[in-house]
Amino acid sequence: MYEEEFSVRLAQLREVKGISARDMSLSIGQNPGYINSIESGKSLPSMASFFYICDFLNVSPKDFFDTQSKDPELINCLINDLKQLDEVYITNIASIVKGLKKKLNTKISA
Fold it and tell me: How far is C-alpha 60 from the chain's CA centre?
């Protein structure tokens, strides 16, 4: 992931969480313009700061770099909930998801 993609991904995940760049900066113990400087491409976080950012966003570093996942925090919550269900429920949910994907693909093709 290049620097520009990093800043775009950070902005995307922050906006999904519904928090301003200033509030996020302050929440992770940085100056008010810290996240804005990363999102504008002026700087990159240190490794330690990157882990604080991921922790704040409730995503793993792997999730951060998975740009196909628009809301990894929600997906992780869903996965944790699925782990508590029995096989019958999981199979039913899997069928629903497959049906939704099929419907979406049909809609896109039209």
Answer: 9
CA-closest candidate to residue 4, choices 44, 35, 38, 41 = 41
Q: Using the structure block, give the residue that is written with the tokens 């269900």.
A: 85
Model confidence, pTM: 0.76
Residues belonging to the chain? 110
- Quote the CA–CA distance of 90 and 82 in Å, as a whole number: 7
Residue 25's pLDDT band (boundaries 50, 70, 90)? very high
Q: Is the pLDDT of residue 90 over 80?
A: yes
Nearest in space to 76 (alpha carbons), one of 97, 61, 58, 53:
58
Report the alpha-carbon distance of residue 43 to residue 65 in Å, rounded: 18
